[in-house]
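Continuing the batch. This is chain 6 of the set; chains 1 through 5 are on the previous pages. Same settings as before, nothing changed between runs. Recording input and output for traceability.
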Amino acid sequence: MEIVGLVMLGLFAGTLASTLGVGGGIIFVPVLTSVFVFGQLEAQGTSLAIILPTAIIGTLTHARAGRVVWNVAYVTGGLGIVFALVGAQLAQAMDEAILSKVFAVVLAVLAIRMARRAWGLRSESIATNGRRDATG
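Output for chain 6:
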């Protein structure tokens, strides 16, 4: 049964990551810790290993369609590599309970920011069109 759950998690997270551009860790880490009872560090490490092939496939697909800004990808990717080393060391030095809470706060802040932006875009659309569209 665990294999079926992990397959479903991979399908769900891979689809969301490539469709919506969200990092798979937003899905993998909470599910691995709450459903599959991984420790926070195990979930984060496993999530990072899972995300690599997902990111490669998603990037290739979007690159073929001309939707990758390569100069931004090179700069932020290079810095991301350097600071991933720093972040991994920091995570390993932290108590898992604190790390789990920090992760939850980061997810909550991101969710609030995304929701505010989505509502702002919806309001702009209504103001621009002078009426609601079929979605609102």
